[in-house]
Request: fold
Amino acid sequence: MAKRAGISPVIATVIIVAVTIAVAIAVAFWMTGIIGLFTGAVEKIEFVSLYAKPTDTGWTLTAILRNVGTTTTSFDVCFINGVPNDQWGGAAQLDKTLPIPINPGESVTFTITLNKDQTIGATTLKPGISIEVKFHTTGGKEYPKLIVLP
Reply:
């Protein structure tokens, strides 16, 4: 009769325990990630509307944004075509002084006055031109929206 060599019961037990512990650690990290997604504070802003009304001297843009997330945040910069509001000069004016806090469930309305034939960055404000309005938050996120000037 041939002798069969195998691993001892002690070694087999150590391997099974090590694999079980490794799987348990992996499952624990996975569950922590899932729980964090459902219970963690989330910043999420959505544009309710963005529209432009022509005036004698240019346009009035009205932007309504709502916090649909679970944490309070603040709008700290408004961009038009990538140019921050503190560099608009006489081409545009924002009706509010930033930062503006917004709590979960609340909405905030911004009015931006654009002056016809003025330039913001490389963009001359004329009818039919597309502009991107983007709001930046203190949480580091940006919320853009594109509009065509009537």
Q: What stands out?
A: The mean pLDDT is 90. Residues 22 and 28 are 10 Å apart (CA to CA). Helices lie at 9-39.
